[in-house]
Amino acid sequence: MKSTITLFLFLSTFILSAQVNYEKGYIIDYTGKKIDCYIKNVDWSNNPSDIQYRLEENSEAITANQSTIKAFQIGSTLKYVIATVEVDQSLSQISKLSRSFGPNFQTETTFLRELVAGDASLYFYQNSNFRRFFYSIDNSEILPLVYKKYKLNNSTISENATYKKTLFDNLKCENITANSLRNVKYSQDDLVDLFSDYNVCKSGDNFVYQDKPSNGKLNVRTKLGVSFNQLEVKFDSGIIVEDLQSATFSEEIGPRFGLEVEYVLPFNKNKWSIFLEPTFLSYSSTADIRIERQVSTFEDTATIDYKVIELPLGFRHYMYLNDNSKLFINAAVVVSFDLSDDIEYRETNDLIISSGTTLLIGLGYDFNDRFSLEGRVYSNKDILSDYASYNGDLSSYGFVLGYRFL
Question: Is the pTM of this model over 0.85?
């Protein structure tokens, strides 16, 4: 079983490292030279610190960062430019709001995502703590649009919406009024619309680099498969001479069936998901025991008819092969709810089953977002965890067919 787990871990690492998602684009170096290439698109949720690209589709990958390139673009929907800007570090969590009206600027040189290009350009910055917007007029210096919440006093939260005045001062056109700017939220949709309206009004020269956003998705699947199970009961010999010694139950195939509810997360091109899969499985086996002592020989027969509801809760990562096929890898914590009571002995006291939790990893293939086949392996679990002197070491691996009906 340990070798099986090692093989699964090796294959998982290999598949993840082998995954390729390079898309046609270009980089611009600091001499201003435009270099056509293939860029690894990881659908960044936060602004990247570096990228990987290939000069040819199958050539060696090259790493570039803010010191080697000043811009890169993938297709017509994603563009980043290097800029040295003032980034407000103010946090928006209520418990971390400051009492200062003004922004807490920190100078950073970073990749900014360009959202709108034209007479007025709009840029976006995001990290794990906050998101910020920046602007530039007629390709001049890139400056911040300031918005922050702050504590006016212990019971009152106020807003610094300086960005509205900045927009009023810089985006002057007949169809943009002070009244319309009052309703502009500090959000990507509102600001993209506003900058686009200004560019169209000003000269008609406007381009929006706005990829279609990912949406979360709920999938429900039936799961049917088989498990290969083997149990070894180990006893700490010598503590109580009358108790049983070790017993190895044969490996048997048991059925499993369940229902999986999966939520595909709305980022990173829908490559990540979380899932919950209530599953019933069973395992039946018998072991003959023979213990030779100095003055006697002890024989017995033990029987297990193990039935359990498992509840795996975990995450899944998809690796797309083409429009219809994808590989995936799972990892989950599995909580067990025992339906069987004990391991039965013919001559001596039965042992009460108490399964607890275990871990699983799985590798699978999905076709047409409808059918799936997966191999799974579990970490060994002690189904006699209530006993100090016994260990019921249950090992398990299996194969699961899935069909998505919702």
Answer: no
